[in-house]
Specification:
This protein has helices at 15-22, 28-36, 116-126, 160-171, 247-254, 268-274, 311-317, and strands at residues 2-5, 40-42, 45-46, 58-61, 87-90, 94-99, 141-142, 151-157, 175-184, 191-201, 206-210, 218-230, 233-240, 281-288, 304-306. By secondary structure, the protein is of the alpha+beta class.
């Protein structure tokens, strides 16, 4: 229990507004709940959220210590009272999350609170599986990332051993990730494997495709297969044999069939005609091949996880 004393400058404020200002990490919905549960009292008595405070009033707050911290990037998860996650799979070591297009995985210049990692940490904190104040506490971490406007499966590690193993397996290409995308025009041939070279321009946040080695470019290998066609649109499954920035988007555009909705590498006029503002790209399937020892994750060997409902597939291919 902690106490707060109302000073002269705060007299006359409502209880909920005074506490909200004093504890910015406490979510408003949780604040109201704590008042109802009498975990926030005034002068030892139950109080209503709209009670006006007087100078010298003493508030008793039966609230976790974490909420008294100052806001920092690493504790912003506390502000999420109701984390929103689409969990594909979860066990004691990891979580597979279906990230929706439009959600950032980590804080950036445009979003600090509503991020995938904050939702994960809030979820595990509220389940009492993790608390940053525990001694030697491991912070739940993402093993892979997906662009803001791309949806699909993201792996989150609950412990350091899982993070190490998954990072090693991704590096050694022991996990198979398959994507679904919709292209404007169908790739020719309808199935194949493409090797090219991608060079990233950091200032433009864009990659450029080359068909022979050039300075600063990295080899990119992409395997694809056309699944369906409907008019000028094609539903294509893509497997990445390398993991380069914007690899699928740049490669398919280079093949003459850019992704529907892609504002950077695609056809703006066509995208506007379909009303699409995000690239039709989804990391929909993950297989733990694990041909070599995976330690505590050996039980995942050979297992495949898949997102069954991919929004743009349902929209255009039913």
């Amino acid at each position: 229990m902690r106490e707060l004393t109302v000073g002269k400058n705060d007299a006359g404020q409502r209880l909920d507004r005074f506490v909200g200002k004093s504890l910015p990490l406490l979510p408003p919905a949780l604040l109201q709940k704590y008042i109802r549960l009498k975990r926030i009292k005034v002068n030892g008595q139950r109080a209503a959220r709209d009670q006006r405070l007087s100078q010298g009033d003493v508030l008793q707050l039966y609230i976790n210590d974490e909420f008294f911290d100052q806001p920092r990037e690493e504790n912003m998860f506390l502000t999420l009272f109701k984390p929103s996650l689409d969990i594909v799979y979860e066990d004691e070591n990891l979580m597979l999350l279906n990230k929706k297009a439009g959600l950032v995985v980590h804080a950036d210049e445009t979003e600090k609170v509503n991020t995938l990692i904050n939702h994960i940490q809030a979820y595990l904190y509220q389940k009492r599986e993790w608390n940053p104040r525990w001694e030697n506490a491991f912070t739940p971490a993402l093993c892979n990332r997906i662009d803001r406007n791309t949806g699909g499966i993201v792996i989150a590690a609950k412990n350091a051993e899982t993070l190490r193993i998954i990072n090693d397996k991704i590096r050694d290409h022991e996990l198979t990730k398959r994507y679904l995308c919709i292209t404007l025009g169908a790739p020719r041939p309808p199935a194949g494997e493409v090797e090219n070279f991608l060079r990233k321009d950091e200032k433009k946040k864009q990659v450029f495709v080359f068909h022979k080695p050039v300075s600063g470019a990295k080899t990119a290998v992409t395997r694809y297969k056309t699944l369906q066609r409907r008019g000028e649109l094609a539903l294509v499954e893509v497997e990445l044999l390398t993991g380069r920035t914007h690899q699928i988007r740049a490669t398919m555009a280079d093949l003459g069939c850019p992704l529907l909705g892609d504002g950077k590498y695609g056809n703006g006029e066509k995208n506007r005609g379909y009303g699409e503002t995000r690239q039709a790209l989804y990391s929909y399937q993950l297989t733990f091949d694990l041909p070599t020892d995976a330690g505590i994750l050996n039980y995942l060997r050979g297992r495949t996880f898949q997102v069954e409902q991919v929004p743009f597939r349902e929209k255009y291919f039913g």
